[in-house]
Amino acid sequence: MNSNENKQYIEIIMITELKNNFLYFSHSEDDENYFNNSLIYLCKNNAEGSFGLIINKRIQIKLKDFSLQPDKELEEKLNDNRVFLGGPVTPFSPFVIHSLDKKYEETLEIDSDIGVSSKSDVIESILKKDFPNQFIVSFGYTGWGPGQLEKEIKEGSWIIIPSNEQIIFSTKGDQKVSEASKLAGFNLNLVSSQYGKA
Fold first, then answer.
1. From first to last of its 198 residues, what are the pLDDT tens digits of the chain?
2. Would you identify the CATH topology of the domain 3-190?
3. For the whole model, what pTM was predicted?
4. Rounded (5°) CA angle 46-52-53
5. Is residue 38 within 8 Å of 54, Cβ to Cβ?
6. DSSP symbols for the chain
7. Beta partners for 144?
């Protein structure tokens, strides 16, 4: 998908809905911008606003350390490639993106295969080794008010890329942007903040 095709994809997707897509932040002139090099999985987009989780910025929190009885299976399942910084809002709250073979209290279904859960019961279940087939955990989330994300997309702040389960669940954090670049058809790291502007 080249840049012109991506812009056409944006126009189509904005007519329907944005959720269940990746968002990549167009590079800002401000190197300290929180979202530089962020790949976000958009979980919700409706009249109330939008909600997504950064999936490529690993943090040093180790889920296995939350268990009172850590063991080898937990260490293998809850490794560093499963825990990410989800965004600046409520940064100490966990959000779990997971396959829907397991559903928890108030699981938000994103599509027929993937949901997101934020209640304590999902973490407790994981620590008891009742794992979903696929999952990652983000601490904090990224949110937008009604119409805010759409406005930022029109201003060229975000690139929309079709989501991919392999990238979400199985690709290492530092490789997710390069893999998403293959889906986009161009190197996301080279896109400036002028992307999408006339």
1. 555 665 555 554 454 579 999 999 986 666 678 898 899 999 999 989 999 999 999 988 777 666 666 667 776 777 668 899 999 999 988 899 999 998 887 899 999 999 999 887 788 888 888 889 999 999 999 999 999 999 999 888 899 999 999 999 999 999 999 999 999 999 998 875 544 443
2. VC0467-like (3.40.1740)
3. 0.84
4. 165
5. yes
6. --HHHHHHHHHHHHHS--SSEEEEEPBPS-TT-TTTT-EEEEEEEETTEEEEEE-S-B-S--GGGG-SS--HHHHHHT-GGGEEE--SEEEEEEEEEEETTS--TT-EESSSSEEEE-SHHHHHHHHTT---SSEEEEEEEEEE-TTHHHHHHHTT-EEEEE--HHHHHTS-GGGHHHHHHHHHTS-GGG-BTTTT--
7. 50
Q: How far apart are CA 195 and CA 157, in angstroms?
A: 7
Pair of tokens at residue 88: 């600046």
Residue spans of the domains in the chain: they are: 3-190
